[in-house]
Every structure is written in structure tokens, then in C-alpha cells.
Fold this protein.
Amino acid sequence: MNPKDPNYPKPLSKAVVAVMKANKRANTKPELAIRALLHKKGLRFRKDFPIKLGNRRCRPDIVFTRIKLAIFIDGCFWHQCPEHGHKPMANVEYWERKLTGNVERDLADTTLLRANGWHVLRLWEHVPVQEAVDFIMEKVTVIRGTCS
């Protein structure tokens, strides 16, 4: 999905454009809360770190480079959470292509990372912060134990 592609659907209003431009790609509230707690617990990591894999690049929200763990905190709307994701009623074609493209990119990134030896965690933004941190810490412990 390339906005410069002439077949790329166009938003219907300036309000939609303004809302989309206001959305952050990185440093969302869930990411900040999870990172703060991970850091408080003594874990060190990279944030919004670009990983180049062949001719493709992805940017996980949290990356433990030494153990090759990539963590994505996926927004329920943008990544179509089965519990909270919804499709807007206006400009259906635009949103269908946009949201489907996000999900397809997520799957491609996850597949490519795993094929290149990375561990991948995808967490929904609605997961309570402490639960997300506990899950991440458990995964880090397991991976470190197998890498020793």
C-alpha cells in the first residue's frame, strides 16, 4: 500500500487526513508504559529499532538485539484486534485496503523475522501493562536460558 500509487484509495475528508496525521507511529501510550516498567525492572532494549532483512525493513516497538527478540505493541484499530478492531462505515474501500494491508504487513514482517532467527512477540494495546511486562520478562528469561 503506497500512498503515491494512483490506485491507492484517497480519504474522503480533510478531517480524516488530520486524524490520520495525528496518530503516532511510535511512542504510543501503551508502548511508553510498557517500556517504562521494563526499564524499571532493569531490562535494557532498543526502541523503534529498524531491522533490515534483505530488501525489507521493519521497526518493532521494542527490540532486545542480543537475544533477537522483536516486540510489537499493536493498536486494536490499526491492526484489527479480534476483540476491539472495527471497520469504519465511511469510505469503506479506503479503510478495507488500509487495514487489510496493515494486517498483511504484520504477517509478512513476523514471518520474515522468524525466518531470520528472530523471536517475535505481538501484544495488543489493550493488554494490561503489568501483564504485558510479565509476559515479556518471561520470554526474555526463556530465550536467555536457551542462548547460554
